[in-house]
Amino acid sequence: MPVTPETNAVILRGLWGACVGSFVNVVEFRVHEGLSVVSPPSRCPDCEKKLAWYDNVPILGWLWLRGRCRYCQKQISVQYPLVEAFTAVAFAGLTWAYYFTDLRPVFSEAGVLATWPVLGVHLVLVACMIAATLIDAKLYIIPLGIVWTASVVALVSPAAGTAGLLHDRWLEIEPWWASLVPIADQSIGIAGVTGMLGLLLSMFLLRFGVLPLSFADEPDIPEGVDSDDPNLILVHPHPRREVLKEILFLLAPIIGIFLGFYFYSEPGKFPVLSFHAFNGVLLGYLVGGGVVWAIRIFGTLLFGKEAMGLGDVHLMAAVGAVIGWRDATLAFFLAPFIGIAVVIVTAGVGAVLKGRTRVIPYGPSLCAATLVVMLFRNEIWAYLLPQLG
Questions:
Q1: Which residues pair with 75 in a beta bridge?
Q2: In angstroms, rounded to a whole number, what is the distance separating the alpha carbons of residues 365 and 169?
Q3: Which residues have CB under 8 Å from 144's CB, separation 6+?
Q4: Cβ proximity of 265 and 156 under 8 Å
Q5: Which residues fall within 8 angstroms of residue 280, CB to CB, at 6 or more apart?
Q6: Where do the H-state alpha helices sit in 65-111?
Q7: What is the CA radius of gyration of the chain?
Q8: What CA–CA distance (Å, rounded) separates 302 from 382?
Q9: Based on the number of CB atoms within 10 Å of its own CB, is 120 exposed (0-12), middle (13-18) or buried (19 or more)?
Q10: How far apart are CA 197 and CA 355, in angstroms?
């Protein structure tokens, strides 16, 4: 690999990734313990001695401490350097794949200066997915603050402005389905804007008690069952009734989307809303979350048990905001295959066939599928589009 600005970018992203991985470890540990992620400063969880800055150097700090606290000699989990190393590899690997392979030609064609805002947003999503995977695998929850971070960054980042300026140039390099960022022209983009307005209205009505909150009542815990048992989500006495409340919540966004299509029946009526990337982020957020929410609702009504979690809804909404509604939908339908493989490997074929594996965190599968789509989306779409006619 020659020494170029792009090569330096790969190395720099790897170093950033190691530092981000260190923070991901902090987030995972403190969420698990119910602590703030910003204070107090890093310290040993056993002796509570404040750690020196050189003990916090990603990967290397664990190595020169030989995996033990400098003060009390308690063992430090190997998870810390592994997560830091994985995040470093993910950041560097994604940068390398985008700029040094044929997977995303527009990156190498347009250059670093034109594409770094988009790469930055993608790396934020990767970091949030790693954190969500760790927490969901242990606690069966996805903290909303983590995935909201990716959504907000996608909306306010310079990528939106860059996309608007270079959209036509990118279409010369890649077809519409291989766009660098979420793109939605006015024909469907206004539906994203009006749908988001409907979502904000529902959130306002929920906040002030006009709309009911679903699954607000804690289910009765059967005798002898641990209150932290993730299978408790399966014992709510009225899951179908509760999920109907979520349908009420979704009425305003759905109406908003249809109104958006209606308004566009007169082209040029709302030219101020013709921002390709901004529309794409909003539409991606709504569709990404909406697909999962629809499966959650239909699954709950069909089986009489809460299907999937709202954390998964917010996770895929963030994915849609970053990579677009088409790719988020593709990742969602790829995730079950990854989930089945993970279950077979971790739980064993026998446990699956005998039904002993009941609650499975789905967030990690969604995250893995999203990463696959981020890397191989062009090849996947190039194969699927002819099949779909």
A1: 68
A2: 34
A3: 311, 314
A4: no
A5: 163, 181, 182, 183, 184, 189, 192, 324, 325
A6: 79-100, 105-110
A7: 22
A8: 35
A9: middle
A10: 43
Q: Are 251 and 218 in contact (CB under 8 A)?
A: no
Structure tokens at 134: 């760790």
Residue at token pair 């090569």:
7
Query: 306: exposed, middle or buried (C-beta count within 10 Å: 0-12, 13-18, 19+)?
Result: buried
What is the chain's pLDDT, residue by residue, as a tens digit (389 residues)? 555 666 777 889 999 999 999 999 989 888 877 777 777 777 787 787 887 778 888 999 888 888 888 888 888 889 999 999 999 999 999 999 988 888 887 777 777 766 788 888 999 999 999 999 999 988 888 999 999 999 999 888 755 555 545 555 555 555 555 566 676 666 677 888 899 999 999 999 999 999 999 887 765 655 655 555 555 555 667 888 889 999 999 999 999 988 887 776 554 444 433 456 777 888 889 999 999 999 999 999 998 888 888 999 999 999 999 998 889 999 999 999 888 887 776 665 555 455 555 567 889 999 999 999 999 988 888 888 777 65
Neighbour tally for 154: CB within 10 Å: 30
What predicted TM-score, i.e. pTM, was given to this entire model? 0.86
**323 and 125 in contact (C-beta within 8 Å)?**
yes
Count of residues making up the chain: 389
Task: Write out the two tokens for 196.
Answer: 């988001």
In angstroms, how far apart are the furthest CA atoms of the chain? 71
Determine the Cα–Cα distance for residues 284 and 278; give it in Å rounded to an integer: 10
Tokens of 121: 């947003």
Reference 381, options 109, 178, 95; nearest CA is 178
